[in-house]
Amino acid sequence: MLNKAQVIGNLGADPKVSNGQTKVASFRVATTEKGYTLQNGTQVPDRTEWHNIVCFGKMAEVVEKFLKKGAKVFIEGKMRTRQYDDKNGVSRSIMEVHADTLVMLDSKPQQPGQQQPQPQQAAPSATQYGNNNDKDDLPF
To answer: Which of 52, 59, 65, 61 lies closest to 103, judged by CA?
Structure first.
């Protein structure tokens, strides 16, 4: 059986961090599927989904220190359902991703007066894959 979620998106707000026996950080990440036009001309709009993310321990410390609203992240973890009672006493459930992996995808901010790095060209590939008419030593 497999319980794995992978999310790449942007934080919708600054993370909320609670300091108990183990530090816990929670935040929401938005993912958006771009809209498109069907062959018959019908417009399908963008669709944004919100994902509840929870980090524990050292990862929560990293979240608290480095992540802010709008930050782009990659999260990998397990889906968990949590039950709670809302402020009116109504029982609710919420789906969360308990993060095992967190990767910050934003580049480091530039320091004032620092020159922008020049883009690097990719090195030519040493091996080309695809249609190759060259003879080789393979027996088939």
So the answer is: 59
